[in-house]
């Protein structure tokens, strides 16, 4: 398996990954697939943080980060998600590899925080904690423990306040 940045040629495969990974009902299109397309179209998808997992020449997983705002601090935090893996490749380490790669890349780019909405039992293994413990205010108070953050090397405790996702995520 290879983890690399997405290319324009990957866009249809990325859409298919999220369509299949998040499908809840036959024939339906889950919101995650068009969400990635919207983030890209609106210029909020961070190209260096949009990664694919390739196995035997095919895209089998994708993760991305988008621009976000934390209090009065622009460019200190990113919003992670979605993370999707084709069902046939789930539980084989693809999601973990993508998570380690995207967190490492965000750190190398100098971001202080990665923020996401997800299952604590899964994301805690990557160092994510409830965002409120870092004085990060969720866009929706009902998200509670599912709204999580991971500090990176450039993190400073003053990086706190209200978190605002990119518009495509905020519309969900």
Q: Percent of residues in beta strands?
A: 25-35%
CATH topology: Aminopeptidase
CATH class: Alpha Beta
Number of helices: 5
Radius of gyration: 15 Å
Shape: globular
Instruction: Give the class from helix and strand content and strand pairing.
Output: alpha+beta
Total number of domains: 1
User: If you average the pLDDT, what whole number results?
Assistant: 95
Order of H and E elements:
EHHEEEHEHEEEEH
Classify the helix fraction into a percent range: 25-40%
CATH architecture term: 3-Layer(aba) Sandwich
Low-confidence stretches: none
Q: Gap between N and C termini, in Å? A: 32 Å
Largest sheet: 9 strands, mixed
Number of strands: 9
Short description:
With 172 residues, the protein is an alpha+beta fold.
Describe this structure in words.
By secondary structure, this protein is an alpha+beta fold. The chain has a single domain, classed as Gcn5-related N-acetyltransferase (GNAT) (Aminopeptidase, 3-Layer(aba) Sandwich). The chain has helices at 11-21, 32-41, 94-108, 120-123, 167-170, and strands at residues 2-5, 45-55, 58-70, 73-85, 113-117, 129-130, 136-137, 147-151, 161-165. Strands 1, 2, 3, 4, 5, 6, 7, 8 and 9 form a nine-stranded mixed beta sheet that branches. A hairpin with a 2-residue loop joins strand 2 and strand 3 (58-70). Helix 1 (11-21) packs antiparallel against helix 2. The longest helix is centred in the middle third of the chain and has 15 residues, at 94-108. The protein is globular. The protein starts with a strand and ends with a helix. The mean pLDDT is 95.
